[in-house]
Design goal:
single chain; mainly alpha; 5 helices; rod-shaped
Length: 138
């Protein structure tokens, strides 16, 4: 009878440990799903910016909306912030300035291609630099 008591005392912490591990695993799985959703939303916003960009016209509301959405989601993505923060801060502000000043976009097809490429690989340093160069040119 004493052996059963010790066995029971040994099994209780093991069962509690297994229960806690299962709970933590489930929470981690849910967190990964949320992170994937935010990353997909971030890359979709990058790609959708080009919908409001037309040659010879100021940026449209769609471009501004998705540029600022991209900027807002940046904080929650799993992408490297040292790379993504560069274009995520320049693009929305420059598009807003262009829209407010009525400044037309020159080279719209080029920037649309860059944005689509960046949407497929948000950490691409070369595309990142090209986009920043495009928006900061005089």
């Amino acid at each position: 009878m004493k052996q059963n008591k010790y066995l029971l005392l040994a099994l209780v912490p093991i069962l509690i440990s297994v229960g806690v591990n299962i709970y933590q695993w489930e929470r981690l799985r849910i967190s990964d799903k949320k992170s994937d959703y935010i990353d997909r939303d971030f890359t979709a916003a990058i790609g959708r910016i080009s919908a409001g960009i037309e040659e010879g016209k100021p940026p449209g509301d769609i471009a501004l909306e998705h540029a600022f959405k991209m900027s807002a989601l940046l904080e929650y993505t799993s992408y490297d912030k040292r790379i993504t923060a560069q274009y995520a801060s320049v693009v929305p502000l420059k598009l807003r300035d262009m829209a407010l000043n009525g400044q037309p976009i020159q080279g719209a097809l080029h920037i649309k291609n860059l944005l689509h490429t960046l949407a497929n690989d948000p950490e691409n340093v070369q595309i990142n630099n090209e986009i920043i160069k495009f928006f900061l040119q005089d």
